[in-house]
Amino acid sequence: MRSCCAEHRTSSSSSSPFPASPLPRFPQSFPRRTVRWVRRPPDGTRRGRPATGRPCPSSPPIRDPGSPQLNADPADQLRLLDLQALDTRLTQLDHRLANLPEHTELRELEAELAQQRDLLVAARAQEGDTAREQTKAEQDVDQVRRRAERNQQRLDSGAVTSPKDLESLQSELGSLARRQDDLENVVLEIMERHEAAAERAREADGIVGGLEDRAAVVRERRDAASREIGDEAGAVRREREAVARTVPEALLKLYDRLRGQYGGIGAARLYRKQCEGCRLELDVTEINEIRRAPADTVVRCENCGRVLVRTADSGL
Ligand SMILES: [Zn+2]
């Protein structure tokens, strides 16, 4: 039941109709009653309003208890709906900007890029290592070959005549040839590893290049979409400022406060007896109360607390 004043609160009051309402404080002498407070839904709106209980005949139109009743020209109240539409558009644009598919696409590409760059770095490091290993192994081969050449020259020069020396020289030539063979096989094995590493590096380099190109295209697309959204948001913001300037300060302040409190919606149209803020249909009592309220009374939805703007389609 909507409580119009502290005196009219009863034990059946399951919730205060207004969000900013402080907990009721009872004087020491006042008999304390059991007041059940219902946990609000996450969006801050109120539910479970008891359908029973007629409003106190002296009750004021729905409004914040504790704050003075706000009055505003019906045309100004209607402008709140324009303002709300613009604010909703801004929220949608913000949401679109934050959830552009390009953001996800880029995140995925960046993750793949990081992986391929790691592979590229590893392949290049291995390419460098095997290149150095190959140089060293080739130097070993050269050393053995030069020694074999020198021995061969000595043998061919005829300077060595002693059969023992000749035999030893030929034996060394034989072992040098075997050593050279072994070392050349080592070089070949290293060359194979070097080639494989170089191939992996080339492949990873190609993949990284391709991914970078794709990322650049996606980034361009994201930037273009962001610019487009930003331009539209700028235009909407300017329009919003222009409309806001025409709304009386107190009404604008209330609207902005409620918008901050209730998920970006501070004012809603009363359409065919339904609050378009919380989508709940108002009961007969509430409709009658709103019907009785003067046109310049700023009416609030008892369920969600938003400003309810009356129009020709309100069903009053
Ligand atoms: Zn509502």
Distinctive features:
316 residues, mainly alpha, Helix Hairpins, 2 domains, four-stranded mixed sheet, 5 helices, 4 strands, rod-shaped, disordered N terminus, binds zinc ion, CT398_CC_hairpin, C4-type zinc ribbon domain-containing protein, Oxidative_Scav/Glycosyltrans, Zf-RING_7
Q: Would you write up a description of this structure?
A:
With 316 residues, the protein is mainly alpha-helical. It has two domains: 6-72 and 248-310, no CATH class; 98-233, Helix Hairpins, CATH 1.10.287. It contains five helices and four strands, in the order H-H-H-H-E-E-H-E-E. It has helices at 74-98, 101-157, 163-246, 249-261, 284-292, and strands at residues 267-271, 274-275, 299-300, 307-310. A four-stranded mixed beta sheet has the order 2-1-4-3. Helix 2 (101-157) runs antiparallel to helix 3 (163-246). The chain is rod-shaped. The two termini are 21 Å apart. Residues 1-61 have low confidence and may be disordered. It binds zinc ion. Zinc ion binds next to loops. Residues 268, 275, 277-278, 280, 301, 303-304, 306 line the site of zinc ion. Residues 275-308 form the C4-type zinc ribbon domain. This is C4-type zinc ribbon domain-containing protein. Residues 1-73, 125-166 are annotated as: Disordered.
